[in-house]
Input
Amino acid sequence: MDTEKVQSVQMEFNSIDDLIRDERDQTEIVEGDSPRQHDSDQPGGSKLKYSIDDIPPWYACLLFGLQQHLTMFSSALVFPFIMANMYCVPDDEKSTVIAQLFSSIVLIESVGTFLQSTFGTRLPIIQGIANALYVPASVIMSTQPWKCPDPETEPGLNNTMNSTLEYEISYGERIREIQGATLVAACFQMLLGLSGVMGFVIRYVGPLTVAPTITLIGLSIYPVSLVNIKNHWGIAFLSMALTTIFSQYLHKVKVPYPWCTPKTQRKCFVDGAKIFALFPVLLSVLISWFVCHILTITDVFPDDPKDPAFQARTDRNAESIASIPWIWFPRPFRWGLPTVSVAAVIGLCAGSVASIIESMGDYYACAAMSGAPSPPGHAINRGISMEGFACLLAGMWGSLGVTSYSGNVGAIAITKVGSRRVIQWTSALLFVFAVVGKIGAVVASLPTPIIGGVMWVLSGITLAIGVSNLRHTDMTSTRNLFIFGVAVVSGIMIPDYLNSEPGIIQTGSFEADQVLEIIMKTGMLIAGFVGFVLDNTVPGTAKERGLLTWQRTDDVQDAGRKLEAESYDLPFGMSRVRGWKWTRYIPVCPTFGKKEE
Output
């Protein structure tokens, strides 16, 4: 019994080895202490530190989760400000409404992330605000009667917009209009997932559909990062450079630390930890944050809020931090019962289709980065259904709908940590930041140029992930070169043309104009659609199209691949699910479509 206790304690100590290195000098460690290696092939031939089903120690999950949170925090931080302007919130109420929107957004991201990683696709993927849903929402709010009045031209209004009574329509009515459209669009998305439509469509989706989609997602991320980078290029470059140095140049460098074996062996020595390889983003953010703090207290950064460099100060939100309560739980329907209109519903449903295409591309990219096989149809169905359910909650809490966050996939590519458990811890951290107001306010004080610098790297990584999907295809084929090139250019050119020619779409129907404008301005949707149509109509062999290696599922007879495919099983109750014959007809069940053995 004593031997078992000693072995148990020793295994706990050895978990640190799993955390900090790929391999370790075994000369001073007892026999039998061997490190775990992962042979998951990644784009570029790199190895994962933790793959999808691995469970790092809790303290490692906490640090990894914080790192993932910091990489996607910019969206939760930026969108409340964007939404407050979109809803025409008066200046004297803006700070309160922004805080309420922030809590609602982070809460929904927390719940959506947990549900997706645990019951949805079960991939280590974070749920964040959907840009594809913001576009139609902003279009709706820019039309009459929702359009914000101009204080300089509208009589009875003043420049400071000090009272909602001066408006014909209050900001609460605008929020309720988007809430109602979000609720209906969420039900539409859930129906697509639960019915198995998306799982059926995925049979015809190959690398030449997904690669252009993810590539355009990467291109769509950089404008958001550029907004933050422009506030202070120096700090943004610092965080970008540190992330690059830590992840690419110092990833094999070991930082020494003391280590002692259990008391029964009484051996102490100095080992090395590859912390640069595991925490490149977290370290770059903390170092850049410290530099910003030094430059703030020495008044190097300007104290004028109108100066863009003011966003690099660490004390710019000091008053807000002091005024925000410790505990603040957002409640549903804070602004009243939602309203529903046909135009808003059609616009948000069209945005949902774009969001679904984006998510399906993210699923494949995340699976590749986390060491899992390509997601089967039932996992796609559950993932889309779960995103729809999270959007339903978003409509109740006044947040925009969520989707799979592409920047998270880029973070996995950099850190080589693709564990599902890490993302579940990330969801717990998001919940804390949503409920504990002080903590969320402190994190919100993170200088925006730092986030811009990190996103600088992640947007490039996401773009590269999209291109890496082409490794399954024969890129010496002129057919494949044609399809990929035309799809990507179409996804860039058509939205740019519509942005340069506002109002060019004139069908005679406002709703039709709105739907077409939303669809045609969504680059990743255009690229994915063009790639999908061409790939399924232009003649080509399965090998040439990359389908032989792309569509690997749990039907593959190799025992190792079967074991990996279990990553998409439900977290519990699988023995009963496999025993019930009727589950083979349920699109979201892991046994869906399988023949009786």
The chain has one domain: 58-154+174-248+277-569.
